[in-house]
Amino acid sequence: MKINLKWRVLDLHNRKKEEKEKEHAPDYRKYTFSRKEILLYGAQGVGIAALLAWFFYHSFWAVLPLSPLILFTFKETEKTLIRRQRQRLADQFKDTILSVAAGLQAGYSIENAFLEAGKDMERLYGDDSLMAKELRFFRKGLRNHVPLELLLADLGIRSGEPDIEDFAEVFSIAKRSGGNLNDIIRRSAAVTGEKIEVKQEIQTLLSSRRYEQKIMNMVPFLIMAYLQLTSRGFFDCLYFNAAGILIMTGCLAVYLAAFYLSRKIIEIEV
């Protein structure tokens, strides 16, 4: 009696979690800014435009023609947040399929193995983690008699991660072929886990290069600030006249092009 009551309480708890979830599963190829993030990144964009206006034109009025940089900052920030979001999802998916493989070895069916993996993800990453939410979507879909392979295929499409899409495709083929499903899933889980681990190692190596890139982006401003402090009036001939404005605009264009190119070099898709 106590055991049945415990399972009923757990089931009610899971249902409440599902009711709090959005009606539609998220698309990880996009990012929705919260109101706080809009204010934060908006202030960041204004600060960057003000910094460029002061160093290149020595006038904060130049923020007005440089205001499109605020939108550019938003776009670049969105790309960064999407990349981090997809990376978190891939990391958690790797642990999910390893948990599924362990569940299959323990004798669970493939559907129950995924549901048990959801509990593992909640313990590892918390109730609000990406894969914990996804596996709650899976639970809801399975209750509505949606095949597991369709749920995995939908996750692969929404994630934009080739490894998740490949796993979903292998799973669908294995389910249709009627072979040794457990063995196929364990092998594909191991291969997918290894690929994601390699990506993690590459991203770790690239993180130091990203840090170096941020330092290099600040070097021109540090040099200009040093010259302005130690040699006052050194740049006066470049401000408040047509020729100086044209020269500084050209320098700004070169700097922005170098900044954009360095971002493209660092943001390697692996």
What does this structure look like?
The chain has 270 residues and is mostly helical. It has one domain. Helices cover 79% and strands 0% of the residues. This is Pilus assembly protein TadB.
Secondary structure tally, helices: 9
Uncertain spans: 1-10, 18-22
Task: Write the element-wise H/E pattern from the N-terminal end onward.
Answer: HHHHHHHHH
Report the helical percentage: over 70%
Average pLDDT, to the nearest integer? 82
Q: Give the strand tally.
A: 0
Return Rg in Å: 26 Å
**Proportion of residues in extended strands:** under 5%
Count of discrete domains: 1
Biggest sheet features: none
Structural class assignment = mainly alpha
Separation, N- and C-terminal Cα atoms: 53 Å
Basic shape: elongated
Keywords: Cell membrane, Membrane, Transmembrane, Transmembrane helix
Pfam families: T2SSF (PF00482)
Organism: Eisenbergiella massiliensis
Transmembrane segments: 38-56, 241-261
Helices, strands, pairings?
Blueprint: H1 2-20, H2 35-57, H3 68-105, H4 110-125, H5 130-143, H6 148-159, H7 162-177, H8 181-230, H9 242-266
List its salient traits.
270 residues; mainly alpha; 9 helices; T2SS_GspF_dom; transmembrane helix; transmembrane; Pilus assembly protein TadB
In short:
The protein is an all-alpha fold and 270 residues long. 79% of the residues lie in helices and 0% in strands.
